[in-house]
Amino acid sequence: MELRDIEIFLTLAEELHFGRTAERLHITPSRVSHAIKKQERHIGAPLFERTSRTVRLTPVGQQLRDDLLPAHVQIQRAVGQAMARARGFSGALRVGYSTPWCADLVFEAAEVFRGRYAGCTVQVREVQFDDPCGLLRRGELDLQVSEVPSVEPGIAAGPVLICEPRALMIPAGHPLARRDSVSLEDLAGVPMIGPGGNVAKTLLDIHVPTRTPMGRPIPRGPSYTFWPEVPCLVAAGLGVSIVAARAARYHNRPGIAFVPFRDGPTMDYGVLWRTAGPAPAMPVAFVDILRGLTLRRRACEAGHDAGPTGSSPTTATTPAPAPCDAAASSTAPCSV
């Protein structure tokens, strides 16, 4: 078996879906099917049981996976070490995040990166919304995963990783808290809590708009320096805040409610990095890992149909990651 065929087999053994395997390996589903059939002819027994909706390993396939996996991991590590030496990868890659769900993704990618490129570490640091690109501008970060878009000079945007529906964080006793959904026009009747500091207008227009789509003014509430102040201000009845829908799973507390918006754009999170300096080889490698993890999360969330032809699901939703650990909520750098 060729190394590429082994990789296809092990990926399919993990995903149990021809379409997701093809997407993850950047090949066609027919290439996956052809490789598996060739391996089965060579071995003389089926490796997978295929139905119109499921793919399962046969006992022969399970044993082959168990025997191949440790050696394949070692090969990947050796290749990664050689790539790191050839590309000059060494030292620490400094990565920022702005929300706990971005932190979950960054910490998972950091673990993969460390295993792939021996001798490299990843320092992870929280980014505050009142100065969202300050650490990048000052050269204290190599890249960050945070709210986009950003049009600041010297800051380049990479891929969008998370597209999240929005919700209104509102005092639990407010009349809007009893609704099933709210509209952007409802913001005309509630004070909006906003960040202090230097935030780009493009971000403010999305997260802290001053007018509704029909042009009605939105009253201003108090400002904050660190985002953890926001739920406290909302619970005190001093205003509301536009948040990602999944914030309800990370920031819920007594005195506040989360009501989904039925209109308006999604809240998007992507990669940002500095354009100054040499070609960022380490950040590019890290972004490749982030994209791979994001594709896998979306595919797993989209459904589990796995027909033998490898057809991919037609819809996908944003995944719900597990709450991040304490390290992800600290403003101090954390080496992974």
UniProtKB/TrEMBL annotation:
Keyword field contains Plastid: no
Top-rank taxon: Bacteria
Pfam families noted in UniProt: HTH_1, LysR_substrate
Coiled coil: none
Region of interest (Disordered), ranges: 302-336
GO molecular function, one term: DNA binding
Biased composition (Low complexity): 306-336
Gene3D superfamilies in the record: Periplasmic binding protein-like II, Winged helix-like DNA-binding domain superfamily/Winged helix DNA-binding domain
Residue stretches making up the HTH lysR-type domain: 1-58
CDD domains: PBP2_LTTR_aromatics_like
Keyword entries, A-Z: DNA-binding, Transcription, Transcription regulation
Recorded family membership: Belongs to the LysR transcriptional regulatory family.
Protein name: DNA-binding transcriptional LysR family regulator
Organism placement in taxonomy: Bacteria, Bacillati, Actinomycetota, Actinomycetes, Kitasatosporales
